[in-house]
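TASK: fixed-backbone design
INPUT:
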């Protein structure tokens, strides 16, 4: 089982996940459940498939809104206070299989300090620190 984790330290970020699938199959199978964040809870939080985890005593300002969507109706925003926040989903994977990991990211606040990290299991695939404001990027 692998964990997909997205973390953001300060500021606001919007995330939309796209296909995460074994590329050698005839039809790619989406492994991430609600990767577009289109099924928020009644309180505006990500669906139950996602875990929001405060780190270092953080208060997590994480939710789903129709103001940060890339496609569809909703998108995820996050921006912790006094620490970091992690949003993650556990996925059933097969050892030795190939997977495509991709996501869309937009930084709505280019003021430092800000950090974003994308991880697959224990591997950090991308880290952005004090990134300037940017629109949706895959």
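OUTPUT:
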């Amino acid at each position: 089982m692998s964990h997909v984790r997205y973390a953001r330290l300060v500021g606001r970020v919007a995330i939309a996940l796209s296909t995460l699938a074994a590329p050698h199959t005839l039809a790619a199978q989406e492994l991430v459940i609600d990767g577009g964040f289109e099924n928020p809870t009644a309180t505006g939080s990500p669906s139950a498939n996602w875990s929001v985890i405060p780190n270092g005593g953080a208060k997590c300002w994480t939710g789903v809104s129709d103001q940060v969507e890339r496609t569809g109706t909703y998108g995820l925003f996050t921006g912790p206070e006094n620490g970091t926040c992690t949003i993650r989903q556990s996925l059933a994977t097969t050892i030795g299989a190939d997977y495509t990991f991709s996501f869309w990211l937009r930084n709505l606040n280019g003021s430092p300090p800000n950090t974003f990290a994308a991880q697959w299991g224990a591997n950090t695939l991308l880290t952005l620190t004090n990134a300037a404001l940017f629109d949706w990027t895959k």
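COMMENT: DSSP finds no helices and ten strands in the chain.
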